[in-house]
Design goal:
Layout (H helix, E strand, L loop, with lengths): L2 H6 L2 H7 L4 H4 L5 E3 L9 E4 L12 H6 L4 E4 L8 E2 L5 H12 L6 E6 L4 H14 L4 E5 L2 E5 L6 E3 L10 H13 L4 E5 L2 H5 L10 E4 L7 H4 L2 H15 L5 E5 L3 H10 L5 E6 L6 E8 L4 E7 L2 E7 L4 H16 L4 H7 L11 E3 L7 E5 L4 H14 L6 E5 L8 H13 L2 E4 L9 H9 L6 E2 L3 H11 L5 E5 L6 E4 L2 E4 L2 H11 L6
Parallel strand pairs: 1-2, 2-3, 3-4, 5-9, 5-10, 6-9, 10-11, 11-12, 12-13, 17-21, 18-19, 18-21, 19-20
Antiparallel strand pairs: 6-7, 7-8, 13-14, 14-15, 16-17, 22-23
Helix pairs in contact: 5-7, 6-12, 14-15, 15-16, 17-18
Length: 501
């Protein structure tokens, strides 16, 4: 693509680059990157200041590797086109969204503290049942398939909930070129705050909920909410489909703020004012029965999963599908065929074992509380609830004691172990948790902790292994090592001869 053609397709780019010399504007753009290591002849380099690196420090390298155009916020840099302070990330995403011009016809963004991964996967499955080639994108990578059985995940390069712009727009282009018509993607607060999603042509969006998380980045809950809200107020075009959980106080607030905008909004929840109202949720051992009211009709479904919050994730996906124009009766009928996402209330079972092990990604106070309340509701009176978890390093320290308190309140036994300590002292992280859970057992090594927890199980007990869910790696200091909660728990059962080897 010639630079002048790329620039002409967007007002922001026209204002910034439209005045450039014709020789530069007639240059063929062979690639765009904010990483100087990726730069080749004919590339555009955008200097972005990140958490650990400042792109301006690599301008000289980018130039030497063949970048014909360099964009930077610093007006004093030579051989650069100066852009307004604070706009480099927006400009970068805009350039990439035009360069990788193809996107699936229907794209919905799912934002909220909890439930994003499950909700995008449920949307994908509903669309597949309708006969469309659909994909989900987020924490687990990109999942594509035309049938439930043949869908596969392709891991992300960076394991971020919302991909970095280069990978994101390249993926969108690839999906569209491979006839994917529908895509549900996770919209993280970081991704929204850093303008990664501003070049996406969204058809709609879901707000699942909001509670304490990422305060190490956002500073306070209001800034966190503002980042989430941006998807609905700044990015969505008019007449977009919107689904909002109004049982959540921030969902209610969001609805009040955007109700007057020209969107097709469906609210959901147990709230009497919800458009799609949850009449009842009944827990069984490994299923949920839900009853839903929509436009004065009652729809019932049995879900092959556990956890009340999973019912909310399922109904969130149903709500956006209906808001997009799908037939309600088909959508509600399809719910009974949905399967949970990896590491989300995932059951590790043994043929000869009369207890239940659950793997879940719950890593926030609200998520942990929701999981524990759900398990307490289905646990038999003579069974114990054992909770094993840790907290990540270099993240919000304030939530650790809160999670300890929640585990202490709702569990019969707690084992505090390491999660991803990263560059923090693992002992310090565990100490923070133990401040809220003084009776907990402390076993630093997560492998030993899980095996010990499994050895304690008796008939009708539940073991929740929380915090890492689908993750297959553990980061300790500068090392990233293989580690999978599900695999360790399964191996522990085999060792105890509770399942067939």
């Amino acid at each position: 693509m010639i630079l002048s053609e790329l620039v002409s397709k967007n007002k922001i780019l026209t204002n910034i680059l439209g005045h450039l010399d014709h020789q530069i504007l007639n240059q063929e753009v062979k690639g765009i990157s904010s990483n100087s290591k990726d730069i080749k002849s004919g590339y555009i380099f955008v200097a972005i200041k990140g958490k650990n690196f400042d792109g301006e420090s690599f301008i000289k390298e980018a130039k030497s590797k063949g970048a014909f155009l360099i964009l930077a916020e610093n007006k004093n840099k030579k051989n650069c086109v100066s852009i307004t302070k604070g706009t480099s990330r927006l400009v970068y995403s805009t350039l990439l969204s035009i360069y990788y011009k193809n996107q699936p016809n229907v794209i919905i963004g799912v934002t909220g503290t909890n439930g994003k991964t499950s909700t995008v996967e449920f949307c994908r499955q509903i669309w597949v049942q309708a006969g469309w080639k659909a994909a989900s994108m987020g924490t687990l990578g990109t999942k594509v398939g035309t049938h439930q059985s043949d869908a596969v995940y392709n891991s992300s390069q960076n394991s971020l909930t919302t991909f970095e712009p280069n990978e994101l727009y390249k993926n969108l282009n690839f999906l569209a070129q491979n006839d994917v018509s529908h895509l549900a993607l996770e919209a993280s607060s970081h991704g929204l705050d850093q303008f990664r999603l501003d070049g996406i042509k969204f058809s709609g969006a879901i707000f699942t909920n909001l509670s304490r998380d990422h305060l190490d980045y956002h500073g306070n809950i209001q800034s966190y909410f503002s980042a989430k809200k941006k998807l609905f107020t700044d990015i969505l075009k008019k007449q977009s489909a919107v689904a909002i959980n109004i049982d959540n106080e921030f969902g209610k607030k969001l609805y009040e703020e955007i109700a007057s905008k020209n969107h097709l909004i469906l609210t959901f929840g147990e709230n009497e004012k919800a458009n799609i109202r949850i009449k009842s949720i009944t827990h069984n051992n490994q299923t949920l029965k839900i009853s839903i009211e929509f436009r004065n009709k009652i729809y019932d479904a049995t879900l092959g999963m556990i956890g009340k919050f999973q019912a909310y994730n399922v109904i969130a996906s149903a709500s956006i599908c209906i808001a997009l124009g799908m037939e309600p009766s088909f959508v509600f009928k399809s719910l009974s065929y949905l399967k949970p996402a990896r590491g989300r209330m995932e059951i590790v079972s043994g043929e000869n074992h009369n207890s239940t092990i659950i793997i879940d990604y719950a890593h926030t106070p609200e998520a942990l509380k929701s999981v524990l309340l759900s398990l307490k509701e289905i646990k038999k009176a003579n069974g114990k609830l054992i909770t094993l978890f840790g907290c990540g390093g270099d993240r919000d320290k304030g939530k650790r004691k809160l999670m300890g308190k929640i585990a202490h309140e709702y569990s019969d036994l707690i084992i505090v172990t390491d999660d991803n300590p990263r560059n923090e002292s693992p002992a310090g992280i565990r100490s923070d948790i133990l401040n809220g859970s003084p009776t907990a057992v402390e076993i630093p090594d997560r492998n030993k902790a899980i095996k010990h927890a499994v050895s304690l199980l008796k008939m009708n007990d539940f073991l929740l292994i929380a915090g890492k869910g689908h993750e297959t790696l553990q980061t300790v200091g500068l090392e990233t090592l293989p580690f999978d909660d599900y695999a360790v728990a399964k191996e522990a059962l085999k060792t105890m001869n509770l399942i067939e080897a």
